[in-house]
């Protein structure tokens, strides 16, 4: 029997507002794609079916379950179903190379994956044992019998310290890191985002982020808790700014969470944008330094009802600070602040010894409080280095971001870039050491350095410099072969667009590789 929306309830902290919307407005549209739509009642029923199917296949609260789905109603339903089940979601991007996906599954202990059949067939090592419509459930190893029938859904108790999901980021040692995020962290983010947003009941949010990015939860859960509609886009719409504008107009989208480079691209195609045809109220961005160019200012001048919101944080904390730019575009500075901490969270500017510095001085940004997750998966030493306690209160968790910043005279935080070789390119967080480690694993490579070239966000790209162990007969063919090998092992955004063969690498006076000289082309 289908659950009665009038009695919808959940112990999952981040879903309580969603359950209330199911009870109050079950027939309102919750999620739609080009192919289908689902109201709140249907979303709740289908998510319960997902949770029941997982239990049928042996999953219990705390079980790691892979999510290998395209943007779709199925994806939103599955994310909600996993939260309700108490299982730990491990997003597996359908665009990642199989080798990386297999590592993630092994590292997280994933033996059960929910996915669309095409991506599941490419995943390797898993056998589909049951399907519900276009969604398949695959288990590790050979197919095994499935108990029949599926049990009725029984909501487990979900506590705030239980893990909600694990997402993988680039690793400085060549090993991607699984970042754990707890239900209490997610609940705090969702409640804050809903409170801070300009959007509410009936407003429509685009589901733009890949499933492997934590931003997906920020798009989906606040929207459903607010009584809005999640609109799923196709990959071609996501990559083409003109198609994205067309989608905003056609689907009456009110809110976008997009990387800054997409804001720049949208600005180049915004000549026909008007409040009547493109009813955007918020564009939120994170991941890169926002630059208020003339084109971006012109776009927001054409859309006076739309606000630009700059958010900052790390995968380990999701959003830590935010800054809503003034409605009057004329008051924008070229490089806007990252603002102030979100609810339950604080940011300390600390020296190298972890001591807070006076306002105005530059230091490392330490994030403390409710945004800080429980640490990396299976990496206790790395967790101990990065996850600390608040310098002002040892009872409060903290995370060393590796970003530099300072408090300005108006009390806002200013972001001043990375402290190490971890970079962000086109909204993707990358640790260059992972790429360098893979390049150096080739026996013909003596040294490899990867840098970011290009000053403007839209021009930033990865560039590799390679020192061969012995001079290759054809340098171009040799470097091209190494990049081709990377494409089979890394996501596309982590593959350098160019590889230069050099006899040696420039050094700083201290003996380190002079990355700045390589990035700027000033190496002798």
Automatic annotation (TrEMBL):
Signal peptide: none annotated. Residues 434-512 form the AMP-binding enzyme C-terminal domain. InterPro entries: AA_adenyl_dom, AMP-bd_C, AMP-bd_C_sf, AMP-binding, AMP-binding_CS, AMP-dep_synth/lig_dom, ANL_N_sf. This is Amino acid adenylation domain-containing protein. PROSITE patterns: AMP_BINDING (PS00455). It comes from Pseudonocardia xinjiangensis. PANTHER family: FATTY ACID SYNTHASE, NONRIBOSOMAL PEPTIDE SYNTHETASE. Pfam families: AMP-binding, AMP-binding_C. The lineage of its organism: Bacteria, Bacillati, Actinomycetota, Actinomycetes, Pseudonocardiales. SUPFAM superfamilies: Acetyl-CoA synthetase-like (SSF56801). Residues 19-377 form the AMP-dependent synthetase/ligase domain. Transmembrane segments: none annotated.
């Amino acid at each position: 029997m289908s659950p009665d929306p009038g009695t919808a309830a959940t112990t999952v902290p981040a879903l309580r507002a969603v359950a209330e919307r199911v009870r109050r407005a079950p027939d309102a549209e919750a999620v739609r794609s080009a192919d289908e739509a689902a109201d709140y009642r249907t979303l709740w029923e289908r998510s319960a079916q997902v949770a029941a199917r997982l239990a049928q296949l042996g999953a219990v609260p705390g079980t790691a379950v892979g999510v290998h789905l395209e943007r779709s109603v199925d994806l939103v339903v599955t994310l909600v179903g996993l939260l309700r089940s108490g299982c730990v979601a491990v997003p597996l991007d359908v665009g990642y190379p199989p080798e990386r996906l297999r590592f993630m599954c092994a590292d997280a202990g994933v033996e059960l994956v929910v996915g669309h059949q095409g991506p599941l067939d490419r995943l390797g090592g898993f056998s589909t044992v049951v399907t519900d419509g276009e969604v398949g459930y695959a288990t590790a190893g050979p197919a095994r019998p499935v108990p029949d029938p599926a049990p009725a859904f029984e909501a487990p108790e979900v506590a705030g310290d239980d893990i909600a999901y694990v997402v993988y980021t680039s690793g400085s040692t060549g090993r991607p890191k699984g970042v754990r995020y707890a239900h209490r962290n997610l609940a705090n983010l969702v409640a804050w985002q809903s409170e801070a947003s300009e959007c509410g009941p009936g407003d429509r949010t685009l589901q733009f982020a890949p499933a492997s990015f934590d931003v997906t939860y920020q798009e989906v859960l606040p929207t459903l808790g607010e009584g809005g509609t999640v609109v799923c886009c196709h990959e071609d719409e996501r990559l083409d700014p003109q198609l994205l504008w067309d989608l905003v107009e056609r689907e009456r989208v009110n809110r976008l969470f997009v990387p800054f480079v997409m804001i720049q691209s949208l600005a180049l195609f915004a000549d026909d944008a008007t409040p009547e045809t493109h009813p955007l109220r918020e564009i939120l961005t994170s991941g890169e330094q926002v630059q208020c160019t003339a084109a971006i200012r012109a776009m927001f001048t054409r859309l006076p009802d739309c606000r630009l919101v700059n958010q900052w944080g790390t995968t380990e904390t999701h959003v830590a600070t935010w800054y809503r730019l003034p409605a009057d575009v004329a008051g924008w500075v070229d490089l806007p602040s990252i603002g102030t901490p979100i609810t339950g969270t604080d940011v300390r500017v600390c020296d190298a010894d972890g001591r807070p510095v006076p306002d105005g001085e530059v230091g490392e940004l330490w994030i403390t409080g409710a945004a800080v997750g429980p640490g990396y998966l299976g990496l206790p030493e790395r967790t101990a280095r990065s996850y600390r306690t608040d310098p002002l209160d040892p009872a409060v968790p903290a995370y060393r971001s590796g970003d530099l910043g300072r408090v300005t005279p108006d009390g806002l935080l200013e972001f001043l870039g990375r402290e190490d070789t971890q970079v962000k390119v086109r909204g993707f967080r990358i640790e260059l050491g992972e790429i360098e480690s893979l390049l150096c694993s080739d026996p013909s490579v003596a040294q490899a350095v990867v840098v970011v070239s290009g000053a403007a966000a839209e021009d930033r790209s990865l560039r590799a410099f390679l020192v061969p162990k012995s001079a290759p007969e054809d340098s171009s063919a040799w470097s091209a072969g190494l990049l081709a090998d990377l494409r089979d092992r890394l996501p596309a955004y982590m593959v350098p667009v160019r590889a230069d063969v050099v006899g040696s690498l420039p050094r700083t006076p201290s003996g380190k590789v002079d990355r700045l000289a390589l990035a700027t082309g000033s190496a002798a």
